[in-house]
Automatic annotation (TrEMBL):
This is ABC transporter ATP-binding protein. InterPro entries: AAA+_ATPase, ABC_transporter-like_ATP-bd, ABC_transporter-like_CS, ABC_transporter_ATP-bind, P-loop_NTPase. Keywords: ATP-binding, Nucleotide-binding, Transport. CDD domains: ABC_NrtD_SsuB_transporters. Residues 27-256 form the ABC transporter domain. It comes from Arthrobacter sulfonylureivorans. The lineage of its organism: Bacteria, Bacillati, Actinomycetota, Actinomycetes, Micrococcales. Pfam families: ABC_tran.
Length: 280
């Protein structure tokens, strides 16, 4: 599976790297295009996500990142091409896929406790009461909120609410978690804490994460690979391997010269939409 299919040849030193080929894809995007009515948004995207991989998607505002995630999650259907989850075409949200959105204040039910919020989708899925309680408490412990099961969203800080939203996704025991700007509504310190929490949880549970962010630093810090979208309609500008090792540290990793180089490459790529269009 060639993860660089459909990518424009970048003018930077980025080159398709055979080492980044996904050996065991859990999700695949084949010949994908999407339009809202007659307005093309995303074009000719071929991409795959490896099992256990952390992939971030970056691109200019309005490029279609959220739309792409909605298609990956089975909430919208491609105009052309197809999306596969474990080899099966995605026609509705896959059972083993969970989504975390940016706006925690709207994603949690204010009249339900943290534990009840986490258990709610499990109830809809027919999971027994006992199993719901066990999974909700385990998920709360996973995000460091073991003492907050009985608290209501309005009794929790923004960062804690977003941790409950992450716990709700984890309690579903997904193979893949899709996150759309999940840390955009919290302060910088909380954001860094949530990034580290997400990395820890991903490593501990072995899940696959696909995350959209505006923040190039965040994308490089979190990712195994970054998918950069650019142009109108957006195409794959590049797929960038992030060889920074599994252990990331907010200070030490960001001080590494490789980190600065990757960040600069990505900035250059997504800041030249006009040039990308001209190349087609
Ligand atoms: N439901 C919709 N109907 C029609 N057009 C839409 C709809 N949702 C989004 N769009 C348009 O599609 C384009 C892509 O939007 P999308 O939200 O996917 O981009 P994005 O890259 O996530 O943007 P941002 O980074 O600003 O959140 C935009 O031009 C937007 O106005």
């Amino acid at each position: 599976m060639n993860t660089h299919n459909g990518a424009l040849a970048p003018t930077t030193e980025l080159k398709p790297d055979p080492a980044s080929t996904v050996v065991e894809p859990i999700m695949a995007v084949e010949g994908f295009s999407f339009a809202y009515g007659d307005k093309p948004i995303l074009r000719d995207i071929d991409f795959s996500v490896g099992s256990g991989e952390f992939v971030c998607i970056v691109g200019p505002s309005g490029a279609g990142k959220s739309t792409f995630l909605q298609c990956l999650a089975g909430l919208r259907q491609p105009t052309q091409g197809r999306i596969l989850f474990k080899g099966q075409a995605v026609t509705e949200p896959p059972a083993e896929l969970a989504v975390v959105f940016q706006d925690y204040s709207r994603s949690l039910m204010p009249w339900l406790s943290a534990q009840e919020n986490i258990a709610l989708p499990l109830k809809s899925a027919g999971v027994s009461r006992r199993e719901r309680d066990r999974r909700a408490l385990d998920a709360l412990a996973e995000v460091g909120l073991e003492g907050s099961a009985d608290l209501y969203p309005w009794e929790l800080s923004g960062g804690m609410q977003q941790r409950v939203a992450i716990a709700r996704a984890l309690a579903y025991q997904p193979a893949v978690v899709i996150m759309d700007e999940p840390f955009a509504s919290v302060d910088a310190q909380t954001r860094a804490d949530l990034e580290d929490l997400t990395l820890r949880v991903k490593q501990h549970l072995g899940i696959t994460i696909v995350l959209v962010t505006h923040d190039i630093d965040e994308a490089v810090y979190l990712s195994d690979r970054v998918l950069a979208l650019s142009g109108k309609p957006a195409v794959v500008a590049a797929v960038v391997d992030v060889d920074l090792g599994a252990d990331r540290d907010q200070i030490a990793t960001k001080e590494r010269p490789e980190f600065a180089e990757l960040r600069s490459q990505l900035y250059r790529l997504i800041r030249r939409p006009a040039a990308v269009e001209g190349e087609k």
